[in-house]
Amino acid sequence: MHNLKKILITLIILMALAFNLSATPIEEDDQDVIPTSGSLRGASRFLAQHSTGLMRCNKNPRLCRAKGSPGPDCCKKTCVNVMTDKQNCGMCGKKCRRQEICCKGKCVNPMMDKRHCGGCNNRCKRGNSCTYGMCNYA
């Protein structure tokens, strides 16, 4: 009976250890890099030679201005557009709330905002309101 308890406790500890290790997130650098294809005008000769690989924008922010880049700004080693990116709205690290979107670098609620009703730059006419993302005409 005593040996059975030892085996059972050892098994429980091993299972807890395996579960803990499997639940630990692994940090991957693949999400922090962007493909560099297209023109790298003004970039160094080294970058031009390695333009088919993956590069980090924190080492050379000009990569974000290359053709095919998600945006011209470099935030946390990733190219973004701070005028439209919900996680970096207006500046790096400024996050919009869940119901908000980023329009022209400002977090707005498209369900109620008269200037961005239902989406960016969808302006309701004067005197009308925005309800549930639709302009209400009076």
Short description:
This protein has helices at residues 2-23, 45-49; strands spanning 34-35, 54-55, 73-75, 78-80, 101-103, 106-108, 129-131, 134-136.
Itemize the secondary structure elements and their pairings.
Blueprint: H1 2-23, E1 34-35, H2 45-49, E2 54-55, E3 73-75, E4 78-80, E5 101-103, E6 106-108, E7 129-131, E8 134-136
Antiparallel strand pairs: 1-2, 3-4, 5-6, 7-8
Proportion of strand residues:
15-25%
pLDDT below 50 for ≥5 consecutive residues: which ranges? 24-40, 43-53
Secondary-structure-based class equals alpha+beta
End-to-end separation: 82 Å
Radius of gyration: 25 Å
The coarse overall form would be elongated
Binned, the helix content reads 10-25%
Describe this structure in words.
The structure is a single chain. This protein has helices at residues 2-23, 45-49, and strands spanning 34-35, 54-55, 73-75, 78-80, 101-103, 106-108, 129-131, 134-136. The protein has 138 residues and is an alpha+beta fold. A hairpin with a 2-residue loop joins strand 5 and strand 6 (106-108). Mean pLDDT is 77; it is low at 24-40 and 43-53.
Tag the structure with descriptive keywords.
138 residues; alpha+beta; two-stranded antiparallel sheet; two-stranded antiparallel ribbon; 20% helix
